[in-house]
Amino acid sequence: MTVLPTSLVQQVAPGPEPVRFTGYAPVGPEAARGWTATRDHLRAELLTTPELLTNPLVVGHASRLLAATLLAAFPNSTTADPVVEDRRDAHPDALRRALAFIDANPDRDLATSDVAAAARVSTRAVQLAFRRHLGTTPMAYLRQVRLDHARADLTSATTGQDTVTRIAAKWGYGRASVFAARYRAAYGVSPSQTLRES
């Protein structure tokens, strides 16, 4: 059995209202498979690589991923459409505040609720602002900012001292293979190639 703190689930939830689960069974077979796969993957990775448990970015991301998957898989009170206030608050000024906050704090363990608080709007409004104006999510934008910082670190790395794995972990990537795949997709080269050329 998996038990998550209510505060964590509330932090990930898209609205300010308390989350209420309305059923014990997943909303469908695909949701059940997604929940099981995510839970088992995180358990296996974190338990077989104990040093990941000391990295607050990895632990925070893994915790929020598990909570978000829980919300997506099981029926709950957060699945309603955005309210009028959220749609109204999803304006460019809120987005600018959110972007500035992420850009200034990429090394912190951030949740969407932190970004929303900095933008002075609800979690759902900040999600709508990112989707409406950038076609992405706050967390996807944060991942890209962290990837950009990792690239800068690789480019300015000291040969023999810095490793791809260490730089990846610094920016919240617990698995070097995931980091390498995202890095290659974003920049067209492997992180090790960037490190060698620094």
Automatic annotation (TrEMBL):
Q: HTH araC/xylS-type domain location, by residue?
A: 96-197
Query: Which SMART domains is this protein grouped with?
Result: HTH_ARAC (SM00342)
Q: Could you tell me what this protein is called?
A: Helix-turn-helix transcriptional regulator
List the Pfam families: HTH_18
* Superkingdom of the source species: Bacteria
Which UniProt keywords are given for this protein, alphabetically ordered?
A: DNA-binding, Transcription, Transcription regulation
Task: Give the GO molecular function terms.
Answer: DNA-binding transcription factor activity; sequence-specific DNA binding
Q: Does the keyword DNA-binding apply?
A: yes
